[in-house]
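BUG: 3D viewer hangs when loading the predicted structure for this chain

Environment: internal workstation, default settings.
Expected: structure renders.
Actual: progress bar stalls at 90%.

Input used:
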Amino acid sequence: MLFVNNSPYARGGFVPMRLSIAALLSALVSGNVAAGSDKLSLEQAVQIATSNDLTLAGQRDDLRIANLSAIEAGELPPPMLGIKLANLPVDSFQFNQEPMTQAMVSYTQKLPAKGLLSSRKSAMLKAADIANAKSQLRKSQLRKLISSAWVKGWQAEQVIGIIKRHRSHFEQMIRSAEANYRAGLRRASQREVIALNTSLAQLDNRSQAARTRSIRAREAMREWLDDVQLSQLDFASQSITNPTGNWSDKVNFNRHPASFLSQRMADRATADIDTAAAVGGADRIWSVSYGYREDSNTGMNRGDFVSLGFSMQLPSLRNNANRARIEAAQSRKSKIERDGQLVELQLRSEYQSNVEINSALEQQLLTYTQRLIPQLAQQAESTRGAYTSGEAPFMSMQRTQMDLMNIELEQVDLEANILLNTVNLDYLTAETVTSSSAEQ
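Structure tokens produced before the viewer hung:
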């Protein structure tokens, strides 16, 4: 298990295994819950970001629009009601002067080609599935963004803590060197005092740089968190424990949100092919009209008229256009399928490289935790004791203390790189939660 211990010279007491960000998340969450309600955990930050993300809000709107548009797409076009006065004589404007004059009321209904309405409705439902898939991909991306920022904030706070701890040793050395120098002892010189003050100033600069990185980690979440919530983020109080499972060589990237999105886009392209084929069918128009004629001035009875009409398109006369429309839709689907295959290949390649990187980083971390840091910590203690008894020169004590601090900072960098790599692996192994558009 990987355990980051903040006690002096104890950072080497762990044995790394394969990392799982799920364990990181659970450790961070449990740590914050115990810390109190005025602190935000990583999981709470992710939930807040999910609630406040404008991209997700827009995708929810897209989902609603697509579902409502599907209702519209499956309906017949509205009928046409016509009213007209036909063949009115302009010399007298008398309605009963001419037998051809009539008042007409018509009703016309267009019937789209067979299968067109159902294919258009299906296409809009597939668009709703695409909006849902985009939302799931965005949620995975948000978790990756927030988790990465959190690890960087944790890294900065760890650096600040290490420098603060070692600064006390340097301050103690300065006091000792100044006292020896004032006493005229040969073990201390003005040059050594100046060198220590210089080292102390360099520590302050490195600490300030770490504070800047901590601020930037918070600001990376400003898009989703307000000032109060940002102030409640406490990176330093978190114990980052690692790790529970091994990364498998058999990951189903077909269930990753990015692959799932590609599949839904391919489904939409299939529906577009059906629509293109249906558009090549024949639209039909039915109409019925009633014409009223008034009796003549002479008393002659004039009958009313009822007219029935039917018209239809002749798409067979435009075979080239129909064929081109269908082939274009098929080509779009082929392109989407190839893009989906490319997405899956990229996920697989990135996953394998991240697993290899993790393995190398963990082996490198073992060198630090099991050999370098314990040896340097023991050497630093021995050198301080030897200097106190006059058996070691001042520069030797300063150098070993600086070496110990630098190696501990390098260990933090390694741990942060492993955790950032783990965040990426967690994203790459994310799986889509399947549910219908209606449920979403």
